[in-house]
Amino acid sequence: MCTTTTAPWKQLLLNSLHSNSNLRHSSYFQLATITPNGMPANRTVVFRGFENETNKIQINTDCRTHKIEDLKHWPFAEICWYFTDSWEQFRISGLVDVIDGSNPDSLKLQQREKAWFDSSPKSRLQYLGPDPGLPSLGDQPVQVPSSLDPAAGPVAAFCLLVLDPHEVDYLNLKSNERICFSRMIANEVISWNSEKVNP
Amino acid sequence: MCTTTTAPWKQLLLNSLHSNSNLRHSSYFQLATITPNGMPANRTVVFRGFENETNKIQINTDCRTHKIEDLKHWPFAEICWYFTDSWEQFRISGLVDVIDGSNPDSLKLQQREKAWFDSSPKSRLQYLGPDPGLPSLGDQPVQVPSSLDPAAGPVAAFCLLVLDPHEVDYLNLKSNERICFSRMIANEVISWNSEKVNP
Known about the structure:
Chains A, B: This is pyridoxal 5'-phosphate synthase. By secondary structure, the first copy, chain A, is an alpha+beta fold. Chain A has a single domain (8-132, 152-197), classed as Electron Transport, Fmn-binding Protein, Chain A (Pnp Oxidase, Chain A). Chain A contains four helices and eight strands; from the N terminus they run H-E-E-E-H-E-E-H-H-E-E-E. In chain A, strands 1, 2, 3, 4, 5, 6, 7 and 8 form an eight-stranded antiparallel sheet that branches. In chain A, strand 7 and strand 8 form a beta hairpin. The radius of gyration of chain A is 18 Å and the shape is globular. The two termini of chain A are 36 Å apart. The mean pLDDT of chain A is 95.
């Protein structure tokens, strides 16, 4: 087990979230993965906080989306998170843990359950809708149940993704500064190296 | 040579650009590529219009950035373009043509020159700055020349990327509609198939 220290980029990211918090989309970022046939894939997802006190980034998703297939085949992803008000970009690359209901680790299942209850009742309903990406049947609007027992635990389609960052590239377009952070592990202690680079 | 028709997703995209045009960042999107060692990479870039009357998407970039290495190794990319005001997402995947000053095709060199002169004098100056991504020297701010002859053609570092879309996944989070467009070529005629799918 490794000792972790709070990463220096984490405070920058928390500052950006704070200074852009008036914007609903400030918690949205783009997650790039690689498909099983070797093609780049990219989509918008929502930041669901850090895992406990760690540097790990949580994302909720539907087990039936292609990104699950991508990540099971090749578990690396890069987040690109652009803050439209402060003109800051974070590129965060790392390994993604896919935690669905079949996970054998009871701690991870607890995490998934916590993520489920932390999400709004409305967003929970999405996971009861028809298979994302499959052809819509007929012209009627998508049928989703209108309510769900608020005490009911995660449904089968609910999946928690946890990205463990190993490199962060921070760019500030107002100050024209760029810093690259990279994780180092020595004697089971994690530390972060940072370097100013040309923007 | 193929006959092209205006893609049905292009009008949707033009509408989104129009309805979000009050926002500076509406022309920004995220471009995912794959690095030579097989890792996903993702960064924000700026939309520089369509190539003439085609469906091809133009991006200006610096030859010295990693994305050039990525694309020369594996020329596929996926754009994720989220419009923050209209809540629409376009995922656009395709093949990318990397047009730098050494390109043997004179028509492509003309295109690159046009892209250079279409960009603002201020943005042209960026290409004269130090090597992006390399360590900054000292603590002084980045040195960039303060002016450039407005009639001077593209500098060596200037590169035009042209993405030729073959699939577009459109999602509207307000109407909860999603449409997948895919390109088909038959008898040298390009057409687009569209299908409503579950969001």
